[in-house]
Amino acid sequence: MDSRIVDEPGSRSLNFIEQMVEEELSAGMHGGKVVTRFPPEPNGYLHIGHATSICLNFGLAERYGGVCNLRFDDTNPSKEDQEYIDSIVSDVRWLGFEWDGAVRYASDYFEQLYAWAEQLIAAGKAYVDDQPAEVISAQRGVPTSAGVESPFRDRPASENLSLFRRMRAGEFAAGSRVLRAKIDMASPNMLLRDPIMYRIMHVPHYRTGSQWCIYPMYDYTHGQSDYLEGVTHSICTLEFEVHRPLYNWFLDQLAEGDYRPRQIEFARRNLSYAVMSKRMLLSLVREGVVDGWDDPRMPTISGLRRAGYTPESIRLFAEKVGVARREIAVDMSLLEFCAREHLNRIAPRVMAVLDPVRVVLENYAEDRTEWVEVENNPEDASAGTRRLLFSRELYIEREDFMEDAPKKFFRMSAGKEVRLKGAYIVKCERVEKDEQGRVTTIFCTVDEETRSGTGNDRKVKGTLHWVSARDAIEAEVRLYDRLFKDEDPAGHKDADFKQFLNEDSLRVVKRCKVEPGLATARPGDRFQFQRLGYFCADKSSTAGALVFNRTVGLKDTWTKQLAR
Ligand code: ATP
Ligand code: MG
Predict the structure, then answer these.
(1) Whole-structure pTM over 0.85, yes or no?
(2) CATH superfamily of this structure's domain 271-348+475-563
């Protein structure tokens, strides 16, 4: 971990979870050890909200010399897939964390959970209900008055046991029966009104194959899985606060001894101008609105990675966002700020011209070339320098030229001087235009006395990036913008979130001119295109067909764009 950009442990005040853990540890609880876990359901790709939870769980373990498990809570085979497992495993690793032992799966505990279910049946604390799901759900009623007890609630234990075994054996149709915990149909906590523990699903599981046709519910699985793993701090998001009494109830019936995982809830972190629900992200992928889960506009970890974000920048973001009990939407610009913060230190500078216009230096001989030396990273002297070939014909950015420029325009304009980065001061003498009046060539003269680094270089207000027409190579550049125009696209009750898509969220610029050294850029390599922003070679990029994704601009211009 690059400690320079992440606050040193101890340099900030403790968050409420750390405070709690420190109090417990100093009181000698948990035998002095901290065991946490990150428990995704493998039904989608991880997003930036999950990343904050990963940093929190692994970070706590790191900070207190403990361990963190990676466990898949894979209780719903109809929505789960190996593809999701693989992506989640690689995302967690990419973020820079290593879990304790092997990857774990709640499905590893199916046999134990089943045995516990039989134990609850034998103790008269669970029963098989033959009613359809809608009836069961209706009987739960409303929190203010007691629900209706199932006619099967007082089935003898022996009958329940035999039915439950037959459920497992595959004798019954999906949905025809469930196993329910016998708790309290009058509880003000609806989750305690005889919750379903098992349902029949004749669906193969991506890990257990066709071994099971009954599957435990998430609520019957999660707490016991934490218990089986010796988790000390079971950190989850706020919506699980009401589930806590149920998790405790199961463990009070089943656990031996006093040890219980301690559940601590914190608020979800959402991002402005993004949707975070897996259902919505999946629909963007399925409908082809984006180019897969790793589209650089997606708030997924894989999307951020493909866009060029570094693990360090995401960890810095998580640190800055912190943990709280109140749900907030974090501004997207904070995430972008964190990206710039790290990329500024590590990204080599290169020159790329996205919208090239030809410049001819009239007093520079046609066959003459020379090498000029430029810094690879002014923030990092160890990054060294590189040589660029300077010649009579160059390209500069079209928007860096204005024939008739206002006073404050310090780029190239008629009769004015400007420096070409690392090379000479040039002066625009005249332009050539096509029939539409569009500038095709800018003719300049170069002042030989002003070569950079010679000591007698005069100062001029503007410095432009350029590439040499002789050796520039072509690249495709993808300029991404936020996927949504609305700050909270999912927050409109009567409007579909897709109504708020930003139709300009991707602009593909073909045939950009970039310096020749970029020919060796490999997918995932990150650069600062000078004066333009940070860019990352796309996974599809090859030496013969370079493709770069814009990670983020050099400055936060979004706020201004919105105002326009
Ligand atoms: P689902 O609706 O499928 O349950 P989920 O976003 O809760 O979606 P999980 O795979 O259950 O996905 O999440 C794994 C962990 O990440 C959980 O502990 C969850 O609380 C946490 N988490 C999910 N979303 C956020 C978020 N936006 N901010 C912080 N933590 C989150
Ligand atoms: Mg969840």
Answers:
(1) yes
(2) Ribosomal Protein L25; Chain P (2.40.240.10)
